[in-house]
Amino acid sequence: MRPLYLAVGATVLVAAIVDILWTTLWVDGGSGPLSSRLTTWIWRGLRQLGGTRSRILSLAGPIILTSTLVMWVGLIWGGWTLVFAGGENALIAARDDVPLTWGGRIFYVAYTMFTMGNGDFYPPAGVWQIASSLTTASGMLFVTMGVSYVLSVLGAVSNKRSFASSVSGMGADSERLVSAAWDGEDFDGLHLPLNSLASRLDTLADQHKSYPILHYYHSEQAKHASAMAVAVFDESMTVLRFGVPEDEQPDAVLVDNARSATQNYLETLNNAFIDPAEETPPPPDLDRLRAEGVPAVADDEFADALDELAERRRKLLGIVSADAWHWPPIDS
């Protein structure tokens, strides 16, 4: 017996299994300890390499997702290889009945993980046969979980782009969105899309909590960037809630629900290691609303409200900056 190999192999396997289960099954846990660090390192490396070039950063999501799967498979593969190396006669060559070399162990674990073996090598009766069965089971189970995880992430990426496109289609910044929603008398026409967007943002927030990797799926076009869309959406709700006189505001329940959806989204920042910006973004320009005939409160009153929302707005800017974009307008 080689206890050191056994101990190291078992440790690697436990670390891999914990990380896989943590990432794929624990909804509130975000990414596992290994996956989260790998994600951050790759993103920072691509940011240094590509700066703000969208074409390079748009590869970040696929590269991170692929690297995560490769890491999981590699850890399970390496862990089982070390476990079998822990026994001097754990694996035997069928033709000449001699113990396997390192190359043979690596080969045996690989085909055992993904198939039932080819008969060239075999484990002696007893604990090593059980270990071989567990190798096959772990390969089938965790590879399947990995594929399911990929499909879920790709579906959530589509939701990100769809939400961003819907918001940018209504307005490239908060002033234009609010002005477009004003029909000359009220904001009643905004109620239906506002309710729909708030519901979709809630879903998107839950998906970001489950799959923090979504923060690193960068869009080449600003109109498809969810980070900017969330900023525009929440700034619009801020204008409607604090920049428009109370008797002219849309349904307060809908506005508060939309702001709550944004708050849920902001709570995903910790899982993605995204910090609030150091400075506060520029405030919405109420004069632009007045020029479009939209009723607005006094500038001092609006400024006081923004002061109380400084931390929230810095988080929004932090998301935008972390995604290598600029503060709205989207079309600037």
Mean pLDDT: 88
Stretches with pLDDT under 50, minimum 5 residues: none
Q: What gap, in angstroms, lies between the N and C termini?
A: 66 Å
Alpha-beta classification: mainly alpha
Strand content: under 5%
Helix % is 55-70%
What is the element layout, followed by pairings?
Blueprint: H1 3-25, H2 33-50, H3 54-57, H4 60-85, E1 92-93, H5 102-114, E2 121-122, H6 127-170, H7 174-181, H8 191-210, H9 226-243, H10 252-266, H11 286-291, H12 299-308, H13 310-322
Antiparallel strand pairs: 1-2
Helix pairs in contact: 1-4, 2-4, 4-5, 4-6, 5-6, 6-8, 6-9, 7-9, 8-10, 9-10, 9-12, 9-13
Give a concise summary.
By secondary structure, the protein is an all-alpha fold. It is 66% helix and 1% strand.
Output the keywords:
single chain; 332 residues; mainly alpha; two-stranded antiparallel sheet; 1% strand
Detailed description of the structure:
Helices cover 66% and strands 1% of the residues. By secondary structure, it is mainly alpha-helical. The chain has helices spanning 3-25, 33-50, 54-57, 60-85, 102-114, 127-170, 174-181, 191-210, 226-243, 252-266, 286-291, 299-308, 310-322, and strands at 92-93, 121-122. It starts with a helix and ends in a 10-residue tail after the last helix. The chain is elongated. Helix 1 (3-25) runs antiparallel to helix 4. It has a two-stranded antiparallel sheet with strand order 1-2. The longest helix has 44 residues, at 127-170.
